[in-house]
Amino acid sequence: MSVSASTLRGGPPPSHPPTPEDILATANALRWEIGADFHEQLMEDIYANAARIASRAVTRPTDKPRFDLERSIDRIVTHRIWGFPIMVLLFMLVFWLTIEGANYPSEFLSSVLLGTVYPWLKAVSGQIGVPWWLDGLLIDGMYLATAWVVSVMLPPMAIFFPLFTLLEDLGYLPRLAFNLDNIFKRSGAHGRQALSMMMGFGCNAAGVISTRIIDSPRERLIAIITNNFALCNGRWPTQILIASIFIGALAPAYLAGLVSALAVVGIALLGVLLTFLVSAFLSRTWLRGEVSTFSLELPPYRPPRILQTLYTSLIDRTIFVLWRAVVFAAPAGAVIWLIANVHLGGVTIAEHIIHFLDPVGVLIGLNGVILLAYVVAIPANEIVIPTVLMLTVLVLGVNNVGAGAGVMFELDSAAATKELLVAGGWTLLTAVNLMLFSLIHNPCSTTIFTIYKETGSRKWTAVAALLPLGLGFAVTFFVAQVWRLLAGA
User: What is the pTM of this model?
Assistant: First the structure.
């Protein structure tokens, strides 16, 4: 649509359509209004801007060296040799602070929720005449499972998530993705899978959704299937607790926290290694194809925003994950109490299932209690340890959950927790293989559902769920046989 010069200047529109002569006249008038040197000034500004960009990007022999803090840091943290040790040291520091800092608040919460509130609830229940089955279902089942989730999970999450969010806000995680890009390329995967893997360390379901940044359907499918090997927030407390009470106990007290942190870092790095190996396997078998390229922009480093980091990590992550765990822990506790109190042939349902699963569990270095706990905890990985602890009481020969709970609410320290697990037949091999199985086993139900929604395929959803599970059984079986072979040598 053409307009006249008067309209461009804000005047009234013409009463008739402009003719070609009118348009040429308007263009000529506007040309002289902007000045005769407009073209020269425009080109001069373009070249001046290009010169400023070149002066920052090009170093000449005669130039004096300039100090650029961001580039100096990037030369270190993205170095092809030093970048990986720095990554390990940073995460080891995060885990050490988490392990050392979580002990005391965890003991406090355990003593309050299990040592004070639980007996009070039992006393109130007895005074008002609550039926034994309702008392057991609500207090010995649902409350105890929820209390264990809060006391075991809240302290490490409240420390780990702010530290992890701080690394994210500072701009370090994109540098980590930059370091891993070449390895993903060699694995036949997309470089952006590093970003979805980082997201998976918070939540595997979120990691699966974040694979949308990968344009190639083949490479996106590889990222979806392997995202489970990134330790999600529901599995961090399990890793930290088991490493603290079993692995850290092997070292002197002053080194226990450091050794525990090394164990957790080792498991996380093993997950990264499995991501590369399984990606390479998929890209060379079921999902062959060319590796695509992409550009990764490194954001500038930002000063820490402590209040925003605390809000993001505590409200958006810690409370969200804890609430999700509580929502699943309460019904899981009810299920545990029911199968521990409903008898078939003089034996409880839980004992039937545990004795059935024990041969397989022992073969892979675990036990029937752990396998049953993982069946119950399919909705959420966060409730594995509380489920194991409650079922272990049953394995010890306690015939009612009330008496078993009496054992449980006295577990106000890591030493007492270890004592209960050892009494349930746990060894160092059990602890090591539980950490391995926790890393590799099938995704939780939320992640499985997310995979189906993202892929729209039952076939690939089944592969994403069963491939890690089969690999978990294979790895723990191999470790158990080698362990026993060396122990008997």
Answer: 0.74
